[in-house]
Write a structure and sequence with these properties.
The chain has 156 residues and is mainly α. It contains five helices and no strands. The longest helix is centred in the N-terminal third of the chain and has 28 residues, at 37-64.
């Protein structure tokens, strides 16, 4: 079993953001239908419980495989083992979209580096130079403070 058997000490520590879930509920309902606060809270509790169930099962599968990190395949296996087979295809699709977005984000970071017009080596040299200048200013300030007799940087 996992280390999480006792439950959280504070429900908000391991909970979905309340406002976000409320917003999702409102978006899913037709415009002419409202949802009572107690109902929204119950749905939030159900969502949290579902996530904890999947996470616990995924963790157990991960531990059985002697792995230390829960991978997407562990979550998919947990869904199947818990009887949520009908969600597997949708989860795979969402995961694929997530991976594509990550790839795009990495590409943006690479483009940003290229737009600077400097190689990575040039940027590292520039960074080292800036650090050296900052060290020099700090050392000069410390020496000045000691000369003034305070012994405390910045004190007068």
């Amino acid at each position: 079993m996992s280390d999480y058997e006792g439950g959280p000490s504070n429900d908000d520590d391991l909970s979905l953001p309340r406002a976000t879930v409320y917003k999702l509920i409102a978006e899913m309902l037709p415009d002419d239908v409202t949802c009572a606060k107690d109902t929204r809270d119950l749905l939030l509790d159900c969502c949290n419980e579902f996530i904890h169930l999947i996470a616990s099962e995924s963790n157990e599968i991960c531990e059985k495989e002697a792995k230390k990190t829960i991978a997407a395949e562990h979550v998919l296996t947990a869904l199947r083992e818990l009887g949520f087979e009908k969600y597997v295809a949708e989860v795979k699709e969402a995961y694929s979209e997530h991976r594509q977005q990550q790839t795009k984000d990495r590409g943006r970071k690479t483009n940003k580096l290229k737009q600077l017009g400097m190689s990575e080596e040039e940027l590292l040299r520039e960074q080292e130079l800036l650090f050296a200048q900052a060290r020099m200013r700090f050392q000069n300030q410390t020496t000045q403070d000691q000369t003034n007799g305070s012994g405390v940087p910045g004190a007068q």
